[in-house]
Amino acid sequence: xxxxxxxxxxxxxxxxxxxxxxxxxxxxxxxxxxxxxxxxxxxxxxxxxxxxxxxxxxxxxxxxxxxxxxxxxxxxxxxxxxxxxxxxxxxxxxxxxxxxxxxxxxxxxxxxxxxxxxxxxxxxxxxxxxxxxxxxxxxxxxxxxxxxxxxxxxxxxxxxxxxxxxxxxxxxxxxxxxxxxxxxxxxxxxxxxxxxxxxxxxxxxxxxxxxxxxxxxxxxxxxxxxxxxxxxxxxxxxxxxxxxxxxxxxxxxxxxxxxxxxxxxxxxxxxxxxxxxxxxxxxxxxxxxxxxxxxxxxxxxxxxxxxxxxxxxxxxxxxxxxxxxxxxxxxxxxxxxxxxxxxxxxxxxxxxxxxxxxxxxxxxxxxxxxxxxxxxxxxxxxxxxxxxxxxxxxxxxxxxxxxxxxxxxxxxxxxxxxxxxxxxxxxxxxxxxxxxxxxxxxxxxxxxxxxxxxxxxxxxxxxxxxxxxxxxxxxxxxxxxxxxxxxxxxxxxxxxxxxxxxxxxxxxxxxxxxxxxxxxxxxxxxxxxxxxxxxxxxxxxxxxxxxxxxxxxxxxxxxxxxxxxxxxxxxxxxxxxxxxxxxxxxxxxxxxxxxxxxxxxxxxxxxxxxxxxxxxxxxxxxxxxxxxxxxxxxxxxxxxxxxxxxxxxxxxxxxxxxxxxxxxxxxxxxxxxxxxxxxxxxxxxxxxxxxxxxxxxxxxxxxxxxxxxxxxxxxxxxxxxxxxx
Length: 725
Ligand code: 2M8
Prior knowledge:
Elements: H1 6-19, E1 35-36, H2 37-47, H3 52-64, E2 75-76, H4 89-92, H5 115-125, H6 133-153, E3 163-164, H7 167-170, H8 179-183, H9 212-227, H10 232-238, E4 243-244, H11 246-266, H12 271-287, E5 289-290, E6 295-296, E7 298-300, E8 305-307, H13 317-320, H14 325-335, H15 373-385, H16 389-406, E9 411-412, E10 419-420, H17 426-446, H18 453-457, E11 461-462, H19 474-492, E12 493-494, E13 499-500, H20 502-506, H21 509-520, H22 532-553, H23 566-569, E14 570-574, E15 577-580, H24 581-589, H25 643-655, E16 660-663, E17 668-672, H26 673-677, H27 684-695, H28 699-707, E18 713-717
Parallel strand pairs: 11-14, 17-18
Antiparallel strand pairs: 1-2, 3-4, 4-7, 5-6, 7-8, 9-10, 12-13, 14-15, 16-17
Helix pairs in contact: 1-17, 2-3, 2-5, 2-17, 3-5, 5-6, 5-11, 6-11, 11-12, 15-16, 16-17, 19-21, 22-24
Bound molecules: (2R)-3-hydroxy-2-(alpha-D-mannopyranosyloxy)propanoic acid (2M8).
C-alpha cells in the first residue's frame, strides 16, 4: 500500500522544483520572485529530507550575499526576475553601504536567523552525514559572523536581546504588534519617495495584505536607512522603530543551540554560541514577559515599554527554550484557549497569528490573524519540548490537514482553514514534507500490534498482594478507593497535557495509600456495587488505575510494550477472583466480547465473573479508558453521579481531536485505530460513522460525511503506544 500522504509529498516536492530558480528557491511563483532569507531556511529544512545537494546550495547561495559586517540580507535579488516586486535594488540603493557584497543585489535589512537550525537539519537528514561535514566547515564561520553581527550591531547595550529596525525584519510584516510603534512615527507623507506597490496582484485581495498606510511607513524606514548609508550606528541614533521581538530573539536563541552543535561536530569551540543562548534566554524570560497577560510581548526601545499586544509570536520562547517552566504553564493556558484555538475545539485549525478574541483580529488578513505553517511548525516543537505532547501531536496533525484540504497556500483562514495569499508557497510545501517525515517516523516507532504471542504465554503479575491491609470496612472500600483515585488524578495527572507524572506519583503518600487500599480489594465483593452508573464509574476508574499501577510497579519507561502482554498480565485479586486489565475492559465493560487480538472471550461459560458483565455496552467508554499511551484518552476521574456527562464530553473531545481527520479533498477519513479494533461496539462501520458524525463540530467535515455516507473511505491512524509520561 502506498504510504499515507505520498501523493501530497510528491505535490510538495513538485512545488519546490517549480519554484527552484537555479541556485535558490522562490518563496512563491507569483508574489515573491527572489530569494528570501528565512524562507530559504525553512525550504532547506524540507528539502533536507530528500535532496541534500539543493538544500546546501539554497543556504550557500544566501550566504554568498552576506554583507561584510555579517548581516544576512532579507532578500537576494535575482537579476533575471527584476521588475515584478517592490522594493527592488533601485529602491534599496544598498550600494551606499561599504558592507555590501560585490556582484550581489540585496535589500538592506535582515530576518529571523533560522539558518543554523536548517544547517543542523541538513546534517541530520543527509544519507551519509559525514559527506556534509565539509559544508558545515564552510558555512560555520558565516553563521557565526551572522550571530556576531546581531549581538554586536543590534544589541548595543549588551542585553542579550537584539532589535529589529523594520517590520519586514520580523517576517510577520503587518502583525498588530507593530501598529503602535508605526503609528507614532511622525512621517511627512508628502516627502516620501515615490513608489508603486507590486504586491496587489490580480487574485490577491488587498484586504488580505498590509494597508497603504503600512507601506508608507515601511518605505519611510527604507528611505531613512538609505540616508544613513546603512550605517548601523547612524540608524540606531535616528530610527524611530527599534524593537526587541520575542519571535526574532527566540529563533536566535534556538539557532545558537544548533550553532553550538555544529561547532561540536566540526571541532570548533562551543562556548560562544552557548553563552549567547543562555544570555538571550535569560533576557527574554526577564524583559519580555508580561505577567498579567501570561505571554511574551515585544519591547519598544523608543517608548521604553512592552507593546501589550499578544500574538502567536509571544509563544515562541517555547521554541527557543527560553521560557521558564512556570511561564510555559501560563503560556500553555493562554495558547490552549479559544483565543488561540483550544485542543479539541473542533471549529478551528492550528494556532492563529493573533488572539481571535481581540478587536483587531482578522481571520484572513496576512499576519493579523491567519494560520501560518512556519509559526505553527515551530510552536509544535516548542510545545513538545516543554512536555505538552498532546497539543503538539494534535497541532502537527492539523498542520498536515491544511495543505491537503486547502492546497499549499501561503496562509490559512483561522477558522475554516481556507487558503489565502500565494498558492504553491514554498515553505508550506517544505515544512509539510518535514511534518510528514516526522509523522512517518512516529508511525514506524509505534507500528505493530501490542498483543504479542510472547505476551500470551507470559506469567501474570498480581499487583495487590501486599501484606498491609486498609483499616476500613470492605463495604466502604469502593468509596475510599474512588476518593483516592481522584486524589491521584488531582495531584499527578495533567489532563491538559494528557500526561501522568509517574515519577512523582511513585513516591507519593497518595499512591502508597492507593496500594494499601488495593490490598483490601481481596476482601471486596463487587456485588455490593449498585446501579449502572456506580458500576461503570467503579470499573472505569479501576481500569485506569490498574494501568497506572502496572506502569509504576513494573518501572516502565518508554511504552507499555516493554512488558509483553501487559494488559493481560497485570491483575488485581478482587474477592475470590482475579481481574486483569483486559478482563475489566473486554469482560466487564465491553460485555464479555472476544477482543480483536484473542481467539477467546475473557470469561468462559462457567466463569462466575460473568455475573458482573455490564450490558449494553456504552461505546463511549473507549474515550475514557486510558492505556498509558499517547493515543488514548486523556486520563480523568469518573464520578458515578456525572459519569454520563463525562463520557459525553470525552466522546466529543475525541471525535474533534486529531485522532479523527476528515479530508474531503482526498475523499477520505482518517481515524484512530481504536475505531477499527472496536468497530462492533459502535454498531459496525455504519454505526461508527453515525457515532463520529453526531459528535463532529466542523461543518465542512459533516457535510463531506453526509454527501459520501454510502461509500465513505476510511483509513486508520496507527496507535501511538509511547507512554503518556
Ligand atoms: C512576506 O514579506 C515580504 C517582505 O519581506 C512582503 O510582504 O513582500 C512575509 O510573509 C515574510 O515573512 C516572508 O519571508 C516573505 C516571503 O515569503 O513575504
